[in-house]
Each structure stands twice: as structure tokens, then as C-alpha cells.
Write a structure and sequence with these properties.
Length: 214
């Protein structure tokens, strides 16, 4: 697949990353603050669905209200670069979101917290928010990630054409941005979840891929 020469997002700075010791300290503090270590759930919207990395003992399909899945955080490492930022998913205000929830292994809560913090919280661009989710086995309290609105990596409410061209033309340490999006859609399909905006984007991206590789 060729990468488009166009990129609609201007270059971004290389955001400073917290020291590993500070990241771990924040993770440890969060783990200690959890009131019920045996019932700590993480609600996944994007790559956490298919690459959770955390030790967990249970996974359920889940749904939340008041938030929706969106490509709403600029990525300058994993799925883009400072010169050509990519986009990764988080929760944006409003609407409805279906995904899956993982119950962290209570005997490895601190380990799981450190994995999550090193993966998601090192640049201070996400915040972890408490949520109430519905599952087939009842409601659960859980946590998930949304961009900090005042952080330069926050990318709420981008136009669809900008999102499409950004995803098509960005690539980072973990591969092309388009692979990230299409992999997420594949796993949503496996869960029987239809996300209208994301599936519409995937249809455009696969159409573009066929044209570029023909």
C-alpha cells in the first residue's frame, strides 16, 4: 500500500514523556485508590479490544451512554510522527458506545495499572474516567480513556475528510494508522458491534487502498 503524499494535520511538537518512575508512581496511586480490587474493569474502545496487554480474568461485551468512540487524539509515536501525526481512539462526549470490558486480575492490579499508565498516560494526554456500563450479565462500574480537552494532542470534532486523509497518510512505531483503524473494525465485527462512523471510514479507507494498490 502506498502512503498518500497529502497530510492535513500540521506538524506537532514531540511532547515530553514523564519519567518511568513518575508514571509508575501515578499508576500505583490509582491502584491503591480502587475501592474494590476484585472488580476493577477497563472499558476498551480501540486497540485495547484486540491488544489489551493487561492481565485480566474476564471479558464482556459492554455499552456506555454519554460518550462515543472517536479518533480524537493525535499520535506522534505509535501511529504517526511529529511531522505527520496520526489519530488514535478515545471517548468523546455525547452519544453511545459499545465495546468490551476487561476485569483486571485482582492479584495483579498494580502490574496492570503500570501497563496501562505506561501505554496510555505517559504524555498526560489522556485522563481515566469512571463509567457505568451495561453488559449481558448486569451493570458494572468501569474506567476508560478520554483526551484531556486542554492538551495539544486532543483532536475532538475533526471533519470526516480530515480524519480519513490523516489516517491514510500516517504511520508510526506500531505501523500504519490505517491498520490500526481496520484492525479495530475487524474486531468490532467479531463482537457483533456496528459503529456507523468508524465503519463508514473503514469503507472509504479500503476503497482507497484498492485504488492505490491496483
Amino acid at each position: 500500500m502506498s502512503i498518500s503524499s497529502k497530510h492535513p494535520i500540521p506538524p506537532l511538537p514531540d511532547f515530553p514523556r514523564l519519567a518511568e518512575s513518575e508514571i509508575d508512581a501515578q499508576a500505583d496511586e490509582w491502584a491503591r485508590s480502587c475501592p474494590a480490587p476484585s472488580a476493577v474493569w477497563i472499558f476498551a474502545t480501540g486497540s485495547l479490544i484486540w491488544n489489551p496487554e493487561i492481565p485480566y480474568v474476564e471479558r464482556r461485551r459492554a455499552a456506555i451512554e454519554g460518550w462515543h468512540r472517536a479518533l480524537c487524539l493525535y499520535s506522534v509515536h505509535f501511529r504517526g510522527t511529529c511531522e505527520r501525526p496520526g489519530l488514535v481512539m478515545g471517548l468523546a462526549p455525547g452519544g453511545h458506545c459499545e465495546g468490551c470490558a476487561f476485569r483486571i486480575d485482582p492479584d495483579r492490579l498494580e502490574e496492570a495499572a503500570r501497563i496501562l499508565w505506561r501505554r496510555e498516560m505517559g504524555h498526560g494526554s489522556y485522563r481515566l474516567i469512571p463509567l457505568r456500563a451495561k453488559t449481558d450479565q448486569g451493570e458494572i462500574d468501569c474506567y476508560s480513556f478520554t483526551p484531556c480537552p486542554d492538551h495539544p494532542q486532543c483532536a475532538f470534532d475533526l471533519p470526516e475528510d480530515v480524519i480519513e486523509e490523516t489516517v491514510r497518510s500516517a504511520s508510526g512505531e506500531r505501523g500504519p494508522n490505517i491498520d490500526y483503524v481496520l484492525n479495530t473494525v475487524t474486531h468490532l465485527d467479531e463482537l457483533g458491534i456496528h459503529d456507523p462512523a468508524l465503519h463508514r471510514l473503514a469503507a472509504k479507507l479500503t476503497g482507497a487502498t484498492r485504488k492505490e494498490t491496483a
